[in-house]
Design a protein that fits this description.
Layout: E1 3-5, E2 22-29, H1 31-34, E3 38-41, E4 47-54, E5 56-61, E6 64-69, E7 72-76, E8 82-86, E9 93-100, E10 120-122, H2 127-142, H3 148-163, H4 174-177, H5 180-192, H6 199-206, H7 210-221, H8 225-243, H9 248-254, H10 260-271, H11 275-283
Helix pairs in contact: 2-3, 8-11
Protein backbone atom coordinates (compact mmCIF):
# COMPACT_ATOMS: atom_id res chain seq x y z
CA UNK A 1 0.00 0.00 0.00
CA UNK A 2 1.39 3.40 -0.97
CA UNK A 3 1.39 6.76 0.73
CA UNK A 4 -1.77 8.89 0.37
CA UNK A 5 -1.14 12.63 0.12
CA UNK A 6 -3.78 15.13 1.16
CA UNK A 7 -4.37 18.46 -0.60
CA UNK A 8 -5.06 20.91 2.18
CA UNK A 9 -8.10 23.19 2.38
CA UNK A 10 -8.64 25.97 4.85
CA UNK A 11 -10.91 25.29 7.80
CA UNK A 12 -12.45 27.69 10.28
CA UNK A 13 -12.77 25.14 13.07
CA UNK A 14 -10.48 25.59 16.04
CA UNK A 15 -8.85 23.43 18.68
CA UNK A 16 -5.39 22.64 20.00
CA UNK A 17 -4.32 26.22 20.71
CA UNK A 18 -6.76 27.78 18.22
CA UNK A 19 -6.07 25.57 15.24
CA UNK A 20 -6.91 22.13 13.94
CA UNK A 21 -4.03 19.88 12.88
CA UNK A 22 -3.97 19.31 9.12
CA UNK A 23 -3.24 15.92 7.61
CA UNK A 24 -0.39 15.89 5.08
CA UNK A 25 -0.28 12.16 4.38
CA UNK A 26 -1.29 8.80 5.77
CA UNK A 27 -0.10 5.31 4.95
CA UNK A 28 -0.30 1.75 6.18
CA UNK A 29 3.11 0.22 5.46
CA UNK A 30 3.12 -3.55 5.44
CA UNK A 31 6.00 -6.01 5.21
CA UNK A 32 6.66 -5.15 1.57
CA UNK A 33 7.54 -1.59 2.60
CA UNK A 34 9.04 -2.06 6.07
CA UNK A 35 11.63 -4.60 4.98
CA UNK A 36 13.18 -1.75 2.97
CA UNK A 37 15.31 0.50 5.22
CA UNK A 38 14.06 4.08 5.65
CA UNK A 39 17.34 5.81 6.40
CA UNK A 40 18.26 9.10 8.03
CA UNK A 41 15.77 11.89 7.31
CA UNK A 42 13.74 14.65 8.95
CA UNK A 43 10.47 16.47 8.34
CA UNK A 44 11.06 20.22 8.29
CA UNK A 45 7.47 21.46 8.40
CA UNK A 46 5.43 18.71 9.96
CA UNK A 47 5.07 16.20 12.77
CA UNK A 48 5.02 12.48 11.99
CA UNK A 49 3.47 9.81 14.20
CA UNK A 50 4.15 6.11 13.64
CA UNK A 51 2.14 3.31 15.26
CA UNK A 52 3.71 -0.17 15.36
CA UNK A 53 0.80 -2.49 14.54
CA UNK A 54 3.02 -5.56 14.32
CA UNK A 55 6.70 -6.49 14.61
CA UNK A 56 9.73 -4.85 16.15
CA UNK A 57 12.79 -2.85 15.19
CA UNK A 58 15.35 -0.26 16.27
CA UNK A 59 15.06 3.46 15.62
CA UNK A 60 17.47 6.35 16.01
CA UNK A 61 15.46 9.46 16.91
CA UNK A 62 17.46 12.61 17.51
CA UNK A 63 20.42 11.53 19.63
CA UNK A 64 18.83 8.42 21.12
CA UNK A 65 18.38 4.80 19.99
CA UNK A 66 15.11 3.05 20.82
CA UNK A 67 14.08 -0.60 20.57
CA UNK A 68 10.44 -0.55 19.46
CA UNK A 69 7.75 -3.23 19.39
CA UNK A 70 4.07 -3.86 18.71
CA UNK A 71 1.84 -1.29 20.39
CA UNK A 72 4.45 1.49 20.47
CA UNK A 73 3.89 5.03 19.20
CA UNK A 74 6.89 6.88 17.76
CA UNK A 75 6.89 10.67 17.77
CA UNK A 76 8.99 12.44 15.14
CA UNK A 77 8.93 16.13 15.98
CA UNK A 78 9.56 18.59 13.18
CA UNK A 79 13.30 19.02 12.36
CA UNK A 80 14.30 15.89 14.32
CA UNK A 81 16.42 13.38 12.39
CA UNK A 82 15.41 9.73 12.58
CA UNK A 83 16.62 6.47 11.10
CA UNK A 84 14.49 3.35 10.93
CA UNK A 85 15.94 -0.15 10.71
CA UNK A 86 13.50 -3.00 11.20
CA UNK A 87 13.96 -6.56 12.42
CA UNK A 88 13.80 -8.34 9.05
CA UNK A 89 12.29 -11.47 10.65
CA UNK A 90 9.41 -9.78 12.48
CA UNK A 91 7.22 -8.83 9.47
CA UNK A 92 6.60 -5.30 10.73
CA UNK A 93 3.40 -3.44 9.90
CA UNK A 94 2.97 0.25 10.76
CA UNK A 95 0.61 3.19 10.33
CA UNK A 96 2.19 6.59 9.59
CA UNK A 97 0.54 9.99 9.64
CA UNK A 98 2.19 13.29 8.79
CA UNK A 99 0.51 16.46 9.97
CA UNK A 100 1.10 20.18 10.30
CA UNK A 101 -0.41 23.06 12.29
CA UNK A 102 0.04 21.10 15.51
CA UNK A 103 0.33 23.57 18.37
CA UNK A 104 0.79 22.32 21.90
CA UNK A 105 1.23 24.84 24.73
CA UNK A 106 4.88 25.40 25.63
CA UNK A 107 6.26 23.54 22.59
CA UNK A 108 7.40 24.67 19.12
CA UNK A 109 4.92 24.21 16.30
CA UNK A 110 4.66 20.62 15.09
CA UNK A 111 6.21 19.24 18.28
CA UNK A 112 4.30 16.82 20.49
CA UNK A 113 7.00 15.96 23.02
CA UNK A 114 9.77 18.03 24.66
CA UNK A 115 13.34 17.24 23.64
CA UNK A 116 14.07 15.97 27.16
CA UNK A 117 11.36 13.28 27.00
CA UNK A 118 11.28 9.86 25.36
CA UNK A 119 9.98 9.87 21.77
CA UNK A 120 8.61 6.31 22.06
CA UNK A 121 5.49 5.56 24.11
CA UNK A 122 3.80 2.21 24.62
CA UNK A 123 0.06 2.53 24.03
CA UNK A 124 -0.94 -0.23 26.45
CA UNK A 125 -4.74 -0.47 26.73
CA UNK A 126 -5.15 2.47 24.33
CA UNK A 127 -3.62 0.58 21.37
CA UNK A 128 -6.93 -0.60 19.91
CA UNK A 129 -8.50 2.88 20.04
CA UNK A 130 -5.41 4.44 18.43
CA UNK A 131 -5.36 1.84 15.65
CA UNK A 132 -9.08 2.42 15.02
CA UNK A 133 -8.55 6.18 14.62
CA UNK A 134 -5.69 5.58 12.20
CA UNK A 135 -7.79 3.14 10.17
CA UNK A 136 -10.56 5.76 9.99
CA UNK A 137 -8.12 8.42 8.76
CA UNK A 138 -6.74 6.07 6.10
CA UNK A 139 -10.26 5.11 4.95
CA UNK A 140 -11.31 8.76 4.62
CA UNK A 141 -8.37 9.63 2.36
CA UNK A 142 -8.09 6.38 0.42
CA UNK A 143 -11.76 6.40 -0.57
CA UNK A 144 -11.90 10.18 -1.03
CA UNK A 145 -14.88 10.64 1.26
CA UNK A 146 -16.78 13.96 1.11
CA UNK A 147 -15.12 16.62 3.30
CA UNK A 148 -12.39 14.15 4.21
CA UNK A 149 -9.84 16.89 4.93
CA UNK A 150 -12.04 18.37 7.65
CA UNK A 151 -12.99 14.95 9.00
CA UNK A 152 -9.34 13.94 9.19
CA UNK A 153 -8.49 17.12 11.09
CA UNK A 154 -11.02 16.22 13.77
CA UNK A 155 -9.76 12.62 13.85
CA UNK A 156 -6.20 13.89 14.27
CA UNK A 157 -7.33 16.08 17.16
CA UNK A 158 -8.90 13.02 18.79
CA UNK A 159 -5.71 11.03 18.16
CA UNK A 160 -3.48 13.67 19.74
CA UNK A 161 -5.83 14.05 22.69
CA UNK A 162 -5.75 10.28 23.26
CA UNK A 163 -1.97 10.12 22.94
CA UNK A 164 -1.54 12.81 25.57
CA UNK A 165 -3.31 10.59 28.10
CA UNK A 166 -0.69 7.83 27.76
CA UNK A 167 1.73 7.63 30.73
CA UNK A 168 5.14 8.80 29.53
CA UNK A 169 8.58 7.37 30.16
CA UNK A 170 10.92 9.17 32.52
CA UNK A 171 12.78 12.13 30.96
CA UNK A 172 15.91 11.25 29.02
CA UNK A 173 19.06 12.49 30.74
CA UNK A 174 20.68 13.79 27.59
CA UNK A 175 23.50 15.44 29.53
CA UNK A 176 24.69 12.01 30.63
CA UNK A 177 24.09 10.30 27.30
CA UNK A 178 25.63 12.69 24.77
CA UNK A 179 28.89 14.56 25.18
CA UNK A 180 29.34 18.00 23.66
CA UNK A 181 31.94 16.90 21.08
CA UNK A 182 29.62 14.21 19.69
CA UNK A 183 26.78 16.74 19.36
CA UNK A 184 29.15 19.13 17.61
CA UNK A 185 30.26 16.41 15.17
CA UNK A 186 26.69 15.37 14.46
CA UNK A 187 25.59 18.96 13.94
CA UNK A 188 28.46 19.55 11.52
CA UNK A 189 27.64 16.42 9.48
CA UNK A 190 23.92 17.23 9.40
CA UNK A 191 24.74 20.67 8.02
CA UNK A 192 27.32 19.55 5.45
CA UNK A 193 26.30 15.98 4.56
CA UNK A 194 25.64 16.81 0.88
CA UNK A 195 29.14 18.30 0.51
CA UNK A 196 32.44 16.51 -0.09
CA UNK A 197 33.31 15.79 3.54
CA UNK A 198 35.54 12.98 4.81
CA UNK A 199 36.57 11.60 8.17
CA UNK A 200 39.83 13.54 7.86
CA UNK A 201 38.07 16.82 7.08
CA UNK A 202 35.68 16.31 10.00
CA UNK A 203 38.59 15.56 12.34
CA UNK A 204 40.37 18.69 11.16
CA UNK A 205 37.27 20.79 11.72
CA UNK A 206 36.83 19.32 15.23
CA UNK A 207 40.56 19.51 16.06
CA UNK A 208 40.59 15.83 17.07
CA UNK A 209 42.07 12.62 15.68
CA UNK A 210 40.12 10.68 13.03
CA UNK A 211 40.27 7.55 15.22
CA UNK A 212 38.75 9.33 18.22
CA UNK A 213 36.07 10.97 16.06
CA UNK A 214 35.07 7.60 14.57
CA UNK A 215 35.08 5.81 17.94
CA UNK A 216 33.04 8.52 19.68
CA UNK A 217 30.49 8.83 16.90
CA UNK A 218 29.87 5.11 16.64
CA UNK A 219 29.49 4.88 20.42
CA UNK A 220 26.45 7.17 20.36
CA UNK A 221 24.83 6.35 16.99
CA UNK A 222 25.92 2.82 16.14
CA UNK A 223 27.32 4.14 12.84
CA UNK A 224 30.71 5.39 11.75
CA UNK A 225 30.71 9.02 10.52
CA UNK A 226 30.94 7.84 6.89
CA UNK A 227 28.09 5.35 7.35
CA UNK A 228 26.04 8.15 8.91
CA UNK A 229 26.77 10.48 5.97
CA UNK A 230 25.67 7.80 3.49
CA UNK A 231 22.47 7.07 5.42
CA UNK A 232 21.79 10.81 5.70
CA UNK A 233 22.18 11.25 1.94
CA UNK A 234 20.15 8.18 1.00
CA UNK A 235 17.46 9.09 3.55
CA UNK A 236 17.10 12.53 2.00
CA UNK A 237 16.94 10.97 -1.46
CA UNK A 238 14.13 8.64 -0.28
CA UNK A 239 12.10 11.64 0.86
CA UNK A 240 12.67 13.37 -2.49
CA UNK A 241 11.69 10.24 -4.42
CA UNK A 242 8.44 9.91 -2.44
CA UNK A 243 7.42 13.56 -2.23
CA UNK A 244 8.79 15.31 -5.37
CA UNK A 245 8.99 14.84 -9.12
CA UNK A 246 12.74 15.47 -9.42
CA UNK A 247 14.52 12.96 -11.64
CA UNK A 248 16.90 10.38 -10.17
CA UNK A 249 19.81 12.31 -11.70
CA UNK A 250 18.65 15.56 -10.10
CA UNK A 251 18.17 13.87 -6.72
CA UNK A 252 21.64 12.34 -6.92
CA UNK A 253 23.17 15.80 -7.38
CA UNK A 254 21.03 17.32 -4.62
CA UNK A 255 22.24 14.72 -2.11
CA UNK A 256 25.97 14.90 -2.85
CA UNK A 257 26.52 12.47 -5.73
CA UNK A 258 27.86 13.80 -9.03
CA UNK A 259 27.65 10.36 -10.65
CA UNK A 260 24.00 9.18 -10.89
CA UNK A 261 25.09 5.63 -11.70
CA UNK A 262 27.12 5.45 -8.49
CA UNK A 263 24.18 6.92 -6.57
CA UNK A 264 21.82 4.30 -8.01
CA UNK A 265 24.26 1.51 -7.17
CA UNK A 266 24.70 2.76 -3.59
CA UNK A 267 20.96 3.30 -3.11
CA UNK A 268 20.19 -0.21 -4.37
CA UNK A 269 22.85 -1.75 -2.13
CA UNK A 270 21.56 -0.01 0.99
CA UNK A 271 17.79 -0.09 0.37
CA UNK A 272 17.47 -3.28 -1.65
CA UNK A 273 15.79 -1.86 -4.78
CA UNK A 274 16.65 0.88 -7.28
CA UNK A 275 15.55 4.51 -6.77
CA UNK A 276 13.09 4.18 -9.67
CA UNK A 277 11.46 1.06 -8.23
CA UNK A 278 11.41 2.64 -4.75
CA UNK A 279 9.46 5.61 -6.08
CA UNK A 280 7.02 3.31 -7.90
CA UNK A 281 6.50 1.20 -4.79
CA UNK A 282 5.63 4.15 -2.55
CA UNK A 283 3.51 5.93 -5.11
CA UNK A 284 1.66 2.76 -6.04
CA UNK A 285 2.35 3.12 -9.78
Amino acid sequence: MGQYLVHQQATSSKCLDQTLPELVYVCHANEEHTTLPRTMHMHKQMLEIVFIKKGKGRHLIGNNIYDVRQGDILIYNSHVLHDEYMDQTSKMSVYCVGMKNVKCPGLPENHLVPESMSCVWNCGDQAHQIETLLEMILFQVKTNQPRHQETCSYLLSALISLLLTIPKEQPLMTEEVCCSLFLKIKSYIDLHYAENITLSSIAKEMNASPYYIAHLFKKYTGFSPIQYIIRRRIGESQSLLINTNFTVTQIAGMTGYDNPNYFTSLFTKLIGISPKKYRQLWRGV
